[in-house]
Structure formats: C-alpha cells, structure tokens
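new request in #modeling-help
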Amino acid sequence: MGMSEQEKLCNRPIGVFDSGVGGLTVAREIMRQLPNERIVYFGDTARVPYGSKSKDTVTKYSRQIVRFLQTQDVKAIVAACNTASAYALDELEQETDVPIIGVVKPGAKAAIEATRNGKIGVIATEATVSSGIYNRYIKENDENVTVLSKACPLFVPLVEEGLWEDPVTDEIAERYLTELIDVGIDTLILGCTHYPMIRAAIGRIMGESVTLVNPAYETARELKQLLHDNGLESGHRPGLGTELYRFFVSDAADKFQKFANSILTYGILSAKVIAIDKY
Amino acid sequence: MGMSEQEKLCNRPIGVFDSGVGGLTVAREIMRQLPNERIVYFGDTARVPYGSKSKDTVTKYSRQIVRFLQTQDVKAIVAACNTASAYALDELEQETDVPIIGVVKPGAKAAIEATRNGKIGVIATEATVSSGIYNRYIKENDENVTVLSKACPLFVPLVEEGLWEDPVTDEIAERYLTELIDVGIDTLILGCTHYPMIRAAIGRIMGESVTLVNPAYETARELKQLLHDNGLESGHRPGLGTELYRFFVSDAADKFQKFANSILTYGILSAKVIAIDKY
C-alpha cells in the first residue's frame, strides 16, 4: 500500500539543532509532545560552545547546519539553541524555504503569561544576553514588563561536568542569581538549553514564589501548532523499521551518545559524525 | 643600508598558536626570554576549546592554523596549546618545512629533571589526558618514573570567568588534586596553558613540597635553542616602526584583546579577525 503525496510530505522528519548536547532537552520535549514525529538532530560538537562567540560566527555556523538538515529532507527546523535563535534566526528564516522556529520567542511568550508583577529575569549565555533578544521580544509584546538579564558562563561547564546536584553549583548559582532576587523578579526564563538540567539548584535559590520558564516546553507546543497550521502533522506513529530518531554530530560521537543517554529516556544507539564545515 | 639575506631570514617572526587565549602565557614567556624576536600569534577563538574535542578535529584545526602562519612568513612555529601539541604535533612536523615545537616535550623534560621521588603528576584537558602523551614522553626518557594524569575540565572556564583567586576555584582544585596528593607526587606539570593563571590556588592545595612545572618557561628555552641551532636568531631588537607583535583570532577580537591585556605586560592595540576555515 503506497503513501499519498501528502502523507509523504507529512512523513518527513523535524530537523533540530544545537551547538552540542543542550538541545536534547528540546528534542526530549518534542518526543514527548509529538510522539508521531520523526527527528533528525544535529549537535555541533566540533565547534561548541556558541555562547561566547560573535553574531557573525554563530550565524555562519547555523547556516551550515540548516543546509545540512535540508539534505535530510526535513519539513521544519527547530533552532534548539538560544544563542543561535538570538543571533541567526531572522536571517535563516529569510533564506530558507522550510519553516524555522527558535526557542526564544516561545520562552518569552510563556514568561509574559506567567508574570504577575511584571518583572521577568533571563539567565543565558553571554551571547544571548548581549543580543538583547529576550528583552526585545518581551517588550514588543508587553512594554510594561521589566526584563533583567544575567549571563551565567559557568553553568554550561558545570552541567557538562555533571555537577547537577553539587554545593559548587549552588554557590555559583547564588552569585549569579542574587541580583535577580534583589530586584524582585517573579518569573525566570532558563534561556540556555543546558540550564533545565540544574533547574533544582536554580529553584532552591530563587525560592518557590518565582516561576521558572523552560522554553523547551513552549517550543514543542509552538512546533505542534506550526505543523498543524501548515498541514504537516504526521498522522500516525512511524512503523517498525522506520528510523524514528537520528543523531548527527560534528565531532566526538561517543561522548555525545553517553551524554544523550543521560538526558533522553529513548536510548541512542549511535550518532554519526559529519563534516559540517563542508555545508 | 639593506639587510643581508641571512638577516632577512632571521628577521622573520615566530608563529605562536593556541585554541584561544591560553597560549598567551607561552607568548609572554617568549617575549621575556627572547626580546629580539617578532611574534605572530593566532588564537582560534571561533572554535575554542580544543580540550574536549577529538584527535581528528584538533589535527584539522591545527593544520589550518599552520597554513595561515606560513602565509605570515614565520621562521618557526610554537604550538602553544597542550591539546594541539598532544594530538597534532607529529603530523604537523612531517608536513611542514619550518621547524615546529610544542609545549609537551619541554614540560615533560623539566618534570623529569625536577622530580626526586620519581612520581610526576600531570593536570590537563580531557583530550591531553586521553592522548597519554605526557606519560609516553616521560617514560621514553626515564622508564622508572610513575606518571599520574588527571583531567580538570572546569579549570579553563573558571580561569576565563576570572575566578583566579576564589573559594570556588580552591574547592574544585581540591577535588581534582586530592588523588594526586594521595599517591605522593612531588612534581606537577601544569599541562594546559590556562593553568598558570591559577598557579597560586594549585600551589596552596599541593603544598610547598610539590614542584609546579610550567611548560611555557621550558618551551621558550627550547625555542631559543632551536633558533640558535638553525642559525635563525634575530641579532637585534627590531627597530621603531616594525610590528614586533601581531595578533590574529578567528572570532571576537575585542574580548581577546581585553583578556590579552590582563595577561601581557605589553599592551595589545588590536587583534585582527581572519576566516581560519579557509586555510
């Protein structure tokens, strides 16, 4: 029994990319909320991290990844990296004929809905903070909201070192977050895909009255809506023998696989290394 | 008055490269010990760090940098990065017609001279530790020496965050170094060019009886010898109007400049960004 043209279009995978492993928290949420969708994930492990790099470099790297994902016949792309979303999304949207969404807009939207006192905090990489993009999106939607951003450069290395529950992580988190507590924010956006891994530590320091927003959840919701609006939803779970999830990296596949298996409930059998700078 | 051919050859600069800013500690030592020599420094700030990447990727990146440095007419090249020295030096030496030295051999040699009890510790990036290169060099020179290596992935981000004198750095250093203390090493190689910046913290934890070896010092000495042996020493300090030191990076020149000026006594006026992946 053959598929109709429409079924073939809808059967194509979602492309998800990140500078490394952080975007797996977004992939995980897509797997949970959209179980019928296939995913092609790319992690740029040869050039990670993006958060300390310039707009030009991040845009160039993101463009190469989008070109690679298009060779995989994706029906939509998720920039599951706040830095790439902040620096490169506008240009990528203009250049690319498949729909692309980032993690920043969904996160900003959720924070506006969550805040009661109009004071939103954003923690992110240096690059995302410098871009001022959360501030811009939030102000565009509600100019009465105050946004306070704080770069937390040590969070990514602490997460990658596995210190998710550790007094050192608590100590560093306390230093970074004190000024956000002092100004009385009631909502905090976890503006880097690594940060949900230390959500517990951040929550302990911020206290129960502060709502933590994980853009991964909102991004998966927005993707669902986007697929629906474009008639691109997969109507059924791909059958046995179909590769539901595929993983590509630019370096060190073994290390990626190990980290991925600590984040995803779905076990990754392998990740394939590709030469991303050729795209 | 024109220069002789030999003077022109000797007047060419030394190429020094690193994945980022760490190699500046080696450049600083070359400036100090070889004040007559010009330097062209390259920091691969678009692809930093190397310490978590694979041999293939580090070799490819190092090869591109060597090609770039050769366009700058260098008379010798210093791989001022332990990871590049560990993974790429053998291949680069074979491919390149100017002499190349790394930081690993000089550091290993100095440690063998320093140890009294034959127990040497090495702290370095994951990549350098995985390569086993310090162990190999030391054993080749003295098979009775015991070498204990320990990867310290958080040291680079802590240094880059500026926490050179900080209880958190002390706490992390204590965790990493305890097992080296327990086995009774009397000599410790600072096997990553960032580590001399937290030498004081490392020294406090190891205690006064442990000799800390900074390969930067030995590397500059070995470079001096190499230039002498090849008749390539510059006989006099370059005159006014000559660009004594030039700095190139692959990204974020401003940030590099700021960091460089905190390390070097010589003030850097500017660093030029080049597209290293074109080489």
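bot summary: The longest strand of chain B covers residues 119-124.
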